[in-house]
Amino acid sequence: MIKRIFFITASIFLLNSHIGFSQCMEKPTGNKKIAKNYVTFGQFTCALQEYLILYQQKPDKPYLNRAIAECYAGIPGQEKNGVKYGEFLLTEKKFTPEDLWILTGAYHKNHQFKKSIATAKLYIEEFKPTEFELEAVQKLITNCENALEIVKFPLNVKFENLGKRINSRWGELNPMVANDEGKLIFTTTRKTVMGGYTFGNAFLSDIFTSKFKGKKYSKPRSLGSMFNSIDIDEYAGSAANSRYLFISTDSEGFQIFNLKMSYLKPRGRSWPKPLNLTGINSNNSNEKSATINNEGNIIIFSSDREGGQGGYDLWLSRKLPDGNWGEPVNLGPEINTIYNETFAMFNDDQDGILFASEGHLNMGGYDIFESSFSNDFTTWSAPKNLGYPVNTTHDDISIKFLQDKRLAYKSDYRDDSYGLSDLYRLVFLDSTPQLSVLNIKLKTDELTKRNRDSLTTLRDLSLSDLDSLRSLLTSLDSLSSDSLNTEITEAEFDSSSTTLSDSIVAYRIDSILQFIETQNTLIRQANPNCYAEIQITNSDTEEEYGRYKSNAYRGGVFMILEPGKYDLSVSAEGYYPLNKSLVIYDKNRFKEIINIDYTLRKRH
């Protein structure tokens, strides 16, 4: 582990001195000396390419297995790939304390938790670790024991990679997205950052943004020199309403990380220049992340200042009447541990926070937790782990939920990742999706020609309450008929009806009855022998979503669909089949009510 400490120290030196090094050679040659130089400066991805070429020639060499396992351990998201090489050293009984420790971590990242625990115990028996090392080993054992229980109850969640347009071969981290998913802000370590200085496996980070246009996000671009510099600049948090933006930076001569904040006015189009958080930043500590309530008068931030529980803690500060920030108060042992806590985020209800912690009931690295608080912030509920696979054995720092809690954005290391870490859109499948009410109105070419100006649809009745509308639609859809010429009587709309009474009271019985009579008259005149059936199929899965029969009084149907692509087929006796493709959009193109008119052509 001494070597690993050296690598970390070397990386910190690079970070503070901003020395730039060349990237990997375009064509690795299997040069042992070049590989060692890469390792010296923490460029494990480059070193791995060299060692793998040598390994193909001499796979039984312990030093190559050791070097490859060490490289995988130094590449976030790739640690589990070192299992094969660490097991070789273990089988050959040619392992060092560091080899055993790397293998323990590789098992952990590969979800081989029992093997990780056994190897950790072997490490203790074989090498009698120091008190500091023993603490680290026991922490890893605890993480494995926690993980064994947490993975038993996985969340029903789907991960959607945002694609190559957003993600790069380097790392994308900590996304912030507006509730309509129209704008995205994130940290990236890609090659096109402003400074262009390499740091380990990637580059010194910048903050990028993208807008959702049409069917996809636009090509990401830098937030510009007001937010980025040649140094490290990271997106560091926001408010639930996405009006506030925090960045953490060591630019402008800072020897430590400080926070800046920008506020986007309700009708603003671009973020103004971020300002230093005077009263929050300290000359003797690092401030790495922050969140603020929607009112803008309470900040919770992460800092390693003195007086905390250990490492980075979460602190709270209130805005004073003069506009300055008051003395920060530690959130206490209910939230903070002897390990690091960071990246708090107020929830949409403003009665709790999400935050990342290396402590509590943790699977490994950082996990994301949630906790609610009392009105005076003096009492906090026990932090609850968000669960697997939202949390993993890697560092899970932040997640941005949308208001419906069904969708969220986060950074993750997964098998389909393009780089060190990618941005994903999460869909919690057990939560109710965002639904659109689809109002399909069917007409015939005869009916359209003869009664174009006299037709009335249900949406012309000044229906304004969406919840009541949905209740009414559910009841009306149950009154389907085998043919469009079946009349609906007043009895079916009796105000004493147990199924329709609540909706009828809200929507003026007289108007509905008059509307029905008009529709029945028109239908009898234009469609004496017509009926219609509508079939909806999911285009992606080719599974039938449902079959609907048109309601007699309006020649159409209401249905409720979640976002997706659908194939729609309409059939009616005496008319040509009608086939249509339909897209129900989400994100910033979502609509609660969609009105569509289709015309059936009569066979001659």
Description of the structure:
By secondary structure, the protein is of the alpha+beta class. The chain has three domains: 2-150, Serine Threonine Protein Phosphatase 5, Tetratricopeptide repeat; 157-428, 6 Propeller (Neuraminidase); 436-600, Immunoglobulins (Immunoglobulin-like, Sandwich), CATH 2.60.40.10. It has twelve helices and 30 strands. The strands form eight sheets. Strands 2, 3, 6, 7 and 8 form a five-stranded antiparallel β-sheet that branches. A four-stranded antiparallel β-sheet has the order 1-23-22-21, with no helix packed on it. A four-stranded antiparallel β-sheet has the order 9-10-11-12, with no helix packed on it. Strand 28 and strand 29 form a beta hairpin. Helix 4 crosses helix 6. Mean pLDDT is 82; it is low at 1-22, 448-467 and 472-509.
Cα gyration radius (Å): 30 Å
The helix tally amounts to 12
* Basic shape: globular
Count of spatially separate domains: 3
| CATH domain class name of the largest domain | Mainly Beta
Low-confidence stretches: 1-22, 448-467, 472-509
- The CATH superfamily name of the largest domain is TolB, C-terminal domain
The helical percent reads 25-40%
The CATH topology of the largest domain is what? Answer: Neuraminidase
| Main sheet record | 5 strands, antiparallel
How many individual β-strands? 30
Through-space gap between termini: 85 Å
* Overall pLDDT score: 82
**Named CATH architecture of the largest domain:** 6 Propeller
The structural class is alpha+beta
| Percent of residues in β-strands | 25-35%
